[in-house]
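Q: A reviewer asked whether we had any structural model of the full assembly, not just the individual parts. We don't, so I'm hoping you can provide one. Inputs are below.
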Amino acid sequence: MTRDEIRQFLEFYQDLGVKTIFERGSALQAESLPELVDDLNSLLPPLPAAKATPKPPPPTAPPPAPMKITPPTLIPLAPEGDTMQAIRADIGDCRRCRLCEGRNQIVFGSGNEGARLVFVGEGPGADEDASGLPFVGRAGQLLTQMIEGTAAKEGIKILRPDVYIANVVKCRPPENRTPMPDEMEICGQFLFRQLLAIKPKAICALGSTAAKALLGTKEGVTKLRGNWQRWYDIPVMVTYHPSYLLRPYNQNAKREAWEDLKKVLHFVYD
Ligand code: SF4
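A: Here is a predicted structure for the entire assembly that you could use as a starting point for your response.
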């Protein structure tokens, strides 16, 4: 990778509102930009020797000055004190990916911004695109029933407004298709900032897109569900997306989803 490519790489993330570079791993790590540039420089091949230059300067000319890297000032991704208001302001009238083309509204997320539990879905559908709120269509109504019905049965006093609900992408994909990897990566930065700002005790990932975005895995929900995973240091329970549960032949999945939800609710609220 050339120095120009590195600069473009860093500027790309700056355009996304990224302020700190995070490294996947067991612990959350923020790398300062100078250290990052040093690391990247150490990976670069050495500068070509003078004899490799097609047109070397005349002997009397001064040697070419070493290329100076002026790193862009990155705004931290999740700085101390990051707030939902700041994240929403950074999103603005976002046109960072192609999903902006067909949307009516950005669906930022809703619920208690100090929630101990966050649900993450895939992306807005038609009802969400029209209302600007996540999970308000049939799948959303089922999610509300799942949260409130399970909590009531288990003697846990919470209602849907007590949790926070967001999606991997904030604009409706055309024809409700699955978000593409680049769309998930670009918009996922905002979801990650939301999660870091809320700092929930647990996250419930609804469906394989949310699981993929949070866990970077290609495993399906059937394999992941029922066991705790981790997004950095926050426990994640993967379960079925409510829209999958609305299909009539998924009785087993419904029972499993309720079991998953019971496990999450007791972990968070007991
Ligand atoms: S999906 Fe996310 S990144 Fe893409 S345009 Fe909408 S808000 Fe921006």
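A: Points you may want to mention in the reply: Residues 227 and 237 are 7 Å apart (CA to CA). The mean pLDDT is 82.
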